[in-house]
Amino acid sequence: MKKKQKIEKARAKRASQEQRKAESKGQPKRAVRPSDDREAFKHKQMVTTAKWNRYMLIRYLDSGLFFIGLYWTVMLFATGSSLAALIAPIVDFATGLVVLLEVNRVLTHDIEYLKVSHRTLEVSVACSLAELALTAFMGKDLLFPFFSSSAIGMGLLAVLIVLKAVIIWRIVLVRDRRDKKRYNLYLMQLDYAEDSKGR
């Protein structure tokens, strides 16, 4: 039995119990139904969840970007690398933070396009490409002294570039409303909430 059916069954059971209790006390029967405030809150939550789901892949990939940048920063700091070398992972850490904050703003503001995140990620991809070239020509000692070979560092940078490219692709997809399945679900929830208000 589905969860929704179980909830409806429990509500009906509770309503019939309350009616029997009212009858035994000699009070007139009254229909028990959820309050309008509760229904409005439920519809608002459904719309918010549908909107939030459009940004799910961005949130998950961004958390990976954020923690890779954090890990890389801590490792460079622990190995006593120069401050110039610390700039590279701090850029990735800051990029992850910017995207995280802007995605969270989606819930409280009427926005779809993560403009600041898009631009920040483009700059960050350019930085990662420069870091990849630097590691290829100068070796692991500057940016990855904690790895055994520069190939591992270059692999990490390639993963970061792919991660950022996928996040950019998803941001553009949401902006252009080409995330059809999730966008249609969002529109359906909006329509449902509007219809419920009109009743």
Can you tell me about this structure?
This protein has helices at 3-24, 36-53, 56-78, 83-108, 115-138, 150-175, 180-198. The protein has 199 residues and is mostly helical. 21% of the residues are buried. α3 runs antiparallel to α6, α4 packs antiparallel against α5 (115-138) and α5 (115-138) packs antiparallel against α6 (150-175). It is elongated. The protein has a domain at 57-194. The mean pLDDT is 82.
Produce a short descriptive summary.
The chain is mostly helical. The protein has 7 helices and no strands.
Name the features:
199 residues
Into which percent range does the helicity of residues fall?
over 70%
Beta-strand content estimate: under 5%
Class of secondary structure makeup: mainly alpha
List segments where confidence is low: pLDDT < 50 over at least 5 consecutive residues: none
| Oligomeric nature of the chains | single chain
Round the Cα radius of gyration to an integer and report it: 26 Å
The DSSP helix count reads 7
End-to-end distance: 29 Å
Count of beta strands? 0
Largest sheet: none
Overall pLDDT confidence: 82
SSE topology string: HHHHHHH
